Amino acid sequence: MRAMFRDLGEALREFVETLGAMTRFLGRLLWETPAALMRFGLVWYQLHRIGAHSLLIIGISAVFVGMVLALQGYHILNQFGATESLGVMVAMTLVRELGPVLTAVLFAGRAGTSLASEIGLMRATDQLSGMEMMAVDPVKRVIMPRFLAGVIAVPLLAAIFSALGIFGGYVVGVGLLGVDAGPFWSQMNAAVDVRTDVMSGVWKSIAFGITASLVAVYEGYNAPPTAEGVSRATTRAIVITAVAVLAINLLITAIIVGEG
Amino acid sequence: MTRPAGQEPHIELEGLRFQRDGRPIFEDVSLSIPRGKVTAIMGPSGTGKTTLLRLVTGQLLPERGSIRVDGQEVTGIGREALYRLRKRIGFLFQHGALLTDLDVYENVAFPLREHTQLPDCLIHHLVMTKLQSVGLRGAARLMPSQLSGGMARRVGLARAVVMDPELVLYDEPFAGLDPISMGVIVRLIREINEALGLTSVIVSHDIEEVSQVADWAWIIADGRIIAGGTPEELRGEESPWVRQFMHRLSDGPVPFHFPARDYPEDLREVPR
Ligand SMILES: Nc1ncnc2c1ncn2[C@@H]1O[C@H](COP(=O)(O)OP(=O)(O)OP(=O)(O)O)[C@@H](O)[C@H]1O
Ligand SMILES: [Mg+2]
């Protein structure tokens, strides 16, 4: 019993330490951001690499998620004779919650892990110290372009996720279950508010983009220079991001709902 | 034996002490490296030759003692000053340390792109001439993973000198090269040194090649400088340490083994 508490205390201490270190690292990255944006070519190259890799799995997942939302939603709404609200339900769920959250988690699984292992391997094979020897700061040259590309990519991918998800919902709802196309779109248009609903999704996806990218580059940059160290960093990149994104999502939702 | 006579030093170490995990690597090392010459640092494997280069470039901090490069103290200067200093130093890593996401051409161009605003045509010219001199112009578009160890070392060499540094540190430039490229590289190091008037430091244990190329050699063993002199002087040296190293004798005071406890005792005791 005592051992369990000790382990828990140990885990808590480690958690707080990691959080502190990540916050300091984020501070450093934000400080470097203006200079890194000046060399946008490097960011663009990474954006291309990261975005292109994630686009396919995010697109496919989005269509599936939209379809399943329409199936379940139709079933429930049908009991209240409100199936014409199916469009609203699918769109709200995607834009406010599932779009940003699932995009961030999928991004972490596809791009975050490869960023972490790439950077970890660069450290393990002396490439980062090689850069330092050439008077090139690896944070500026390697970390910043990857971090910024992730921060930019996630909101864009989340928007694509929501759009394709709504398309999937349309295919199932209108095409398969016979909901009228007219109210599907018009009710959605009337009910989804750009200022509150869409913006809350946008804010979320920005927060998640920063989280997922930060965790990935931090874990890679601080990985022990061994095979085991790099593989652990890769795992941590996805696990920490997934938990953090779900927790932050709850927090933001609570604040927004609380405000009315 | 403390210093090559009558020459202005480019690098000066004094009373250097450095340890790793409680094991001293250097006890009390003082040496000087003359400007504009080729100096070799020799010694058995694991004595800390690479460590010495890392200390000189500020990648590691000594526990005690001073390191001056170009009259400037390296220990404890800030990151900015260190980076300014490193821009004037070319460094050949023992294992190349090429950037694996860039091809050979871009690897050599990397310092130029990072530190200068030169137009592409000039960068192209510089990169191609350096690659030509190490015989790898035809490999310009290969990725580092497609190179052999010796080829990677030669690319590292081209990259180390592409910025026209004042000081070049070569960590084992000859290891893993075939006799032909070895001859080419030996001549290249000599030529670069004379044409550009820079200071070269070669870490190596290839006595033959060092004798051909170096003006001065230091021998390190057991955490100390055991000898220094021109390669001819060292060949004639009487001290058993130097004789053993220069004449490749297996018996002598220079230890071949990493520090360990009694051999029979180690054999008897099975770790569990
Ligand atoms: N990262 C490290 N952590 C702990 N000890 C190290 C580390 N790197 C090197 N050492 C130790 O420092 C000593 C000197 O290593 P160094 O690499 O400088 O040797 P070297 O003279 O360059 O050898 P070689 O000729 O084989 O390259 C070795 O005994 C090694 O065990
Ligand atoms: Mg070495």
UniProtKB/TrEMBL annotation, chain A:
Gene designation per UniProt: mlaE
Keywords carried by this UniProt record: Cell inner membrane, Cell membrane, Membrane, Transmembrane, Transmembrane helix, Transport
Name the record gives this protein: Intermembrane phospholipid transport system permease protein MlaE
UniProt similarity note: Belongs to the MlaE permease family.
Predominant cellular place of this UniProt entry's protein: membrane
Functional note: Part of the ABC transporter complex MlaFEDB, which is involved in a phospholipid transport pathway that maintains lipid asymmetry in the outer membrane by retrograde trafficking of phospholipids from the outer membrane to the inner membrane. Probably responsible for the translocation of the substrate across the membrane.
PANTHER family listed in its UniProt record: ABC TRANSPORTER PERMEASE PROTEIN-RELATED, PROTEIN TRIGALACTOSYLDIACYLGLYCEROL 1, CHLOROPLASTIC
UniProt GO MF annotations: phospholipid transporter activity
InterPro entries per the UniProt record, alphabetical: ABC_MlaE_roteobac (IPR003453), MlaE_Permease (IPR053408), Permease_MalE (IPR030802)
Lineage: Bacteria, Pseudomonadati, Pseudomonadota, Gammaproteobacteria, Natronospirales
Automatic annotation (TrEMBL), chain B:
MF terms in GO: ATP binding; ATP hydrolysis activity
ABC transporter domain mapped to chain residues: 11-247
Presence of the UniProt keyword Endoplasmic reticulum in the record: no
Keyword annotations: ATP-binding, Nucleotide-binding, Transport
Pfam name, any one: ABC_tran
Species whose genome carries this gene: Natronospira elongata
PROSITE patterns named among the record's database cross-references: ABC_TRANSPORTER_1, ABC_TRANSPORTER_2
Name of the protein this chain belongs to: ABC transporter ATP-binding protein
Lineage, uppermost ranks: Bacteria, Pseudomonadati, Pseudomonadota, Gammaproteobacteria, Natronospirales
PANTHER family the UniProt entry points to: INTERMEMBRANE PHOSPHOLIPID TRANSPORT SYSTEM ATP-BINDING PROTEIN MLAF (PTHR43023:SF6), PROTEIN TRIGALACTOSYLDIACYLGLYCEROL 3, CHLOROPLASTIC (PTHR43023)
